[in-house]
Structures are given as C-alpha cells and as structure tokens.
Amino acid sequence: KTYSFKALAICLAIFTCAQVQAQSWETKYLKYWSDGPLDSSDFIKRKSTDNNTIGVLSRAIDYKWGWQQVGNLQFETVNTRLTMDKLNSWHDPALVGDLKYFQTEFDILETLRRQMQNEINNDPSRAADIINYYERLCDSKISAFCEECKYGKDRRVVDSIAADISKVLAEVPEEPLKAPKIGNKEYGLSFYA
To answer: Is residue 149's pLDDT more than 70?
Structure first.
C-alpha cells in the first residue's frame, strides 16, 4: 500500500508540473485579441528575404467545446477566442513603420469571430456548420484585405480599412448565449421486426 501511495503522489506531482508548464507556455507564446493591441514585443524581428514580405501574423481562432446551462436546459456549445502565435509571427522592422497592417488583419478576424460566436450562441445545434462557413469566410476576407492593401505597403488603404473595422468592432458586441430552440413535439409510432 505504501508503494501505490508513493506512485500516486509522484503521478500527481508530474501532472501538476505539466499543467503549470502548459499555462506558462500559453501566457508566454500566445496573445489573445482581448489582451489589447499588438505591439512589437509580440513579434520576432527578422530581415525579410525578398523585400516584398513585411512579415507574417500567425493567428487562429481557438474553439473550446463545452456544456452550457440556460435555465434547466443543458446543451453542448462552443466558445471561441482569437489568438496570435508569437513564436511564428515576425516582421521586418526596416519594412514596417508600425504594426497597423497586422493589427487591422487581427481586427478583421475579431469581427468575424464575434459574428460567428453570436450565430453559435443563437443556435448551438448548428455550431459545426457555422464554424465551417466562417473559416472559409475568414480566409476569403483576409486574402482580399492583403491584396487590396498590397500586403501592407499601401498605407492609405490600410488606414481606410482600419477605420472601417474600428466602427464594426464597436457595433458588433458579443451576444449572450441563448437557450436552443425546441421545435413542436411530434408523436409517432414505430414497429420493429
């Protein structure tokens, strides 16, 4: 019995250390949109190899599936957060005066993430379809933005889109979770052979 208690204590200590290490990694290498504007410390500084690429913003929408309760109903839903990966994001300080291009890209994705989260909150049963739609929409909107502003080199376009996105961010708050819609009860009869 002493041996199994020691083994349990060692396993518990290892698990606790792994959890602390994972939390430390997350706070050090991930930045959430809700943490505030991007700054130069969020990026690795390196020289661009082709003088056309000013940098890369490595970003993703994190999906956390879980259970929610509204009233006496419990149902599965998804919570989303926009993250930036600091390990894979870089910029060339010689080509980038400020980070407005990257911040605008991050803000465009946040507006789409909020719209997606609101749709999921309105109808959690369609979460997978909503996520698939918005993943394609995010790729499309970011590609259009990058091409329109020549990957950050046309400052006038970046400034114009940044101003528009700031207005959209102010107008699109995240709505609270709603109870799923329950259709009319239907009755039927089945026979099994």
So the answer is: yes
